[in-house]
Amino acid sequence: MSVKISMKDVAKEAGVSVSTVSRVLNNGKYVTDETKNKVNTAVKKLNYRPNVIARGLRTQKTNSVGLILPDITNEFFGKLAKSIEEKLNEHNINLLLCNSNENPKIEKNYIEALLDKSVDGLIFISSGFDENLDLFPEDLPVVVIDRRPSADRNIYFISSENKKGGYLATKHLIENGCRDILMLKDEKLVSPMNERLLGYQAALRDYNIDFRPEYIIKSKIDLKEIKEKILKIHNKIKFDGIFAGADRLAIGAIRTLSKLGYQIPADIQIVGFDNIPFAKYYNPSITTIAQQIDKIGHKSAELIIELINNKNMGQADSFYFPVYLIKRESTT
Amino acid sequence: MSVKISMKDVAKEAGVSVSTVSRVLNNGKYVTDETKNKVNTAVKKLNYRPNVIARGLRTQKTNSVGLILPDITNEFFGKLAKSIEEKLNEHNINLLLCNSNENPKIEKNYIEALLDKSVDGLIFISSGFDENLDLFPEDLPVVVIDRRPSADRNIYFISSENKKGGYLATKHLIENGCRDILMLKDEKLVSPMNERLLGYQAALRDYNIDFRPEYIIKSKIDLKEIKEKILKIHNKIKFDGIFAGADRLAIGAIRTLSKLGYQIPADIQIVGFDNIPFAKYYNPSITTIAQQIDKIGHKSAELIIELINNKNMGQADSFYFPVYLIKRESTT
DNA sequence: CTGAAAGCGCTAACAG
DNA sequence: CTGTTAGCGCTTTCAG
């Protein structure tokens, strides 16, 4: 039975012309109720479904949005993708998901592929290579999340108050008595981490603690790598607190330090970032800075839809969502 | 500069006909090297990119594959999605990702949307509502993963040796001295969990331990829910071992039991399933049954590509990938 | 209110 | 080897 049935078949069945069918399906304006009924009956009877490819060719709209992100298995990006997709789905827009794997070259390929596919808009979490932003045509609706492109680009941007998060985390540690505070951060020069670092530095300054560059430990957000880094420095540097720029880093650190015999939080206190689901269920549970991922995701989706429907929105805006500290067992 | 340039422009620039351009771009057969050069030069000069929508309309191929899965934030599905996408990308096939959220109705919408989009094939992880499988047209290449549809459907299926996994986990606990072994399983009637349960039962039988239905604890794969379930039963049922059908369940259980004062593994030994990255870094690290997610993902992608290129492959096959036990601290 | 006709950009016979 | 032609399925003037 798999013969694809087209508008032509519906038209014949309903005894009207193709254009009338099209009219009924699209807006229903300028059509008698009677013809409407005839068409609708025929549509049902034949189980007709419009061919969106043909429609796309004609209208130059695809009802699809591309999402490029570094790694879907990172729980932050995973949740983000989910909330974006959820919202787009409400508007019958499909999501084309692309993992750049933090690789600018793959990212470039994906951008081109998505443009070729004529996506109506693009939501973009950069691999950190700003040049790829130049691939976007002027008139393509684009929303950038999380990793801020350099300032001179006129582009919509959404993220959390990362600096404030770093400040809150560090302040919490200081007020709990820590004086020698490590910061664990991504090795990449990517804005959220840098802003968290700025927050960390600002807190130290406010409490008159000297900033020491050797207290910044760089590692991929990878459990194994952070373990190796911790093993390498734990007996070279003296520290009583850790601000981990991501919960994954916090988990790797806690695990490694526990195995080395340190007590958390008695010997070393730790604050993470992101509030991934496991943070609450880790042993010990992890004090962390929560981001409102759902809000970021929904806002991104809403914004891209708005941009698609109304391309001329003038000066691009930025949006920053509040973060807050959740106190758990990894700090006193 | 954003005027979309088409094959016509290239043809004019190169001084040839549109069909010649098409020929050069597609296979290059039956064209002089000279014309080839002319065309290629024009393509480069104009920075031409083919319109895949138009091509799709004409060829009835979209070079895209749909992936429907229950929840991208579940690390098993996330990794699966990533490995599928990776492989498809090698073949220049785009992935349309859809989260059904374990909801048959959303799932149905997505199936229809993907069919409307004329995806070339579909990779499908069911929400557990088999009727949705009937929505697939006979001639659509489909690969089902993880959750096996009822046997009478002629459909390609890929998963792990779940029963064997359940057996290995339970056997390990028994050989470590456990006699009262809980099984934590998804509340859904979904095949992987049921097969793990069969493995659990088979192991008990082989070691002459009675199966007691009250030792099967059902919970969503959700940290909070499993916590509540454990709290409810821990002092009603006596147990010295737990086989958790998913690492997430294992983590929720360990955390809850630790808080209650039980020592893991001294008082209670636990084996999980999946080998998610955190299993290795949990406190204590978790003995688990590893699935070869990458292999499953790559196989699915390869299979769907094969089916797309060669629709008539006859009787549908099933593929089961080996699992193995990784010994860590949550068992002795 | 409805139908005819053109055309979105591309590919695939079919001639030559 | 290359050009002409038709048409994929739909929307959108333009007449009527």
TrEMBL record, chains A, B:
Please give one Pfam family short name: Peripla_BP_1
> What are the record keywords, sorted?
DNA-binding, Repressor, Transcription, Transcription regulation
Q: Where is the HTH lacI-type domain?
A: 5-59
What name does UniProt use for this protein?
Answer: Transcriptional regulator, LacI family
Q: Does the keyword Protein biosynthesis apply?
A: no
Q: Specify the species.
A: Halanaerobium salsuginis
The yes or no answer to whether the keyword Thylakoid is present is no
Can you provide one Gene Ontology molecular function annotated for this UniProt record?
Answer: DNA-binding transcription factor activity
| Record PROSITE patterns | HTH_LACI_1, HTH_LACI_2
